[in-house]
Amino acid sequence: MDLAFQQTPNPIIEFNGVSKTYNSGTHALSDVNIQINKGEFVFVVGSSGAGKSTFMKLIMREEKANTGTIMVNGFNLTKLRRRNVPLLRRTMGIVFQDFRLIPTMNVFDNVAFAMHVVGASPRTIRKEVSKALSLVGLGHKARSMPNQLSGGEQQRVGLARALVNSPDLIIADEPTGNVDPNMSYEIVSLLSAINQKGTTILMVTHDHNLVRDFHHRVIMLDGGKIVADNAGGME
Q: What is the C-alpha to C-alpha distance for residues 159 and 175, in angstroms, rounded to an integer?
């Protein structure tokens, strides 16, 4: 077992004195301190360049902090070796703005791909993929190809793929950015329902109307700093 792993993470995400400066000289984050507990639903908001993308990349270990410590799902990302990054990512599901479905695979196989990666058995794959597709309302589209789906349906496939391995944490990076307002509401409603079952949700969005409607915790970034942290949502 990697020495960077600790049992029973609580909180599920913790930043202590985290700063990130890119080689270009851009100061993306400055002395960020935050805790996100297991079972929370948290919106991350802020204008372009506020530090939202860097915040998420650090959590997924796509980038490393210059200073401070980051704990995610019991992994100390400051000490995590590169070869163990896949172990970290298996504890999370990721929903992308641009869907990132494999165009040559049907809906079922796109979702199943996430399970093949972790070595699940064919029987488990059939059961869990069917369950995930049913949850997002796409059980009848299992054999459809991505190009036969609407943007909203493609995003729901992406959500099923993020869910299928029962992760502790789902990271949704602007998941409503490429769908219409009605579907945006539906996607966040689905995420909220998943959250009610105990999965932690961290969602980056620029849609303040969605944030106001759902009354989840809101973390606001500006200039690489956390300038607001509202447990009751945004007014």
A: 9
Q: Nearest 5°: phi and psi at 109?
A: -70, -30
Is the pLDDT score of 131 beyond 60? yes
Model confidence at 234, in pLDDT bands (50, 70, 90)? low
Q: Does residue 10 have a pLDDT over 90? A: no
pLDDT at 2: 47
Task: Give the pLDDT score at 178.
Answer: 84
Distance CA 19, CA 55 (A): 10
Evaluate whether 10 touches 184 at the Cβ level (below 8 Å): no
Cα–Cα distance list, 111 to 120, 170, 175, 195 (Å): 12, 15, 17, 20
Answer whether 12's CB lies under 8 Å from 200's CB: yes
Question: Which run of H or of E encompasses 20?
Answer: strand 13-21
CB 81 within 8 A of CB 149: no
Predicted confidence (pLDDT) at residue 156 exceeds the cutoff of 50:
yes
Answer for the pair 34, 228: CB distance below 8 angstroms, yes or no: no
In 3D space, the residue among 234, 206, 105, 109 whose CA is nearest the CA of residue 160 turns out to be: 109
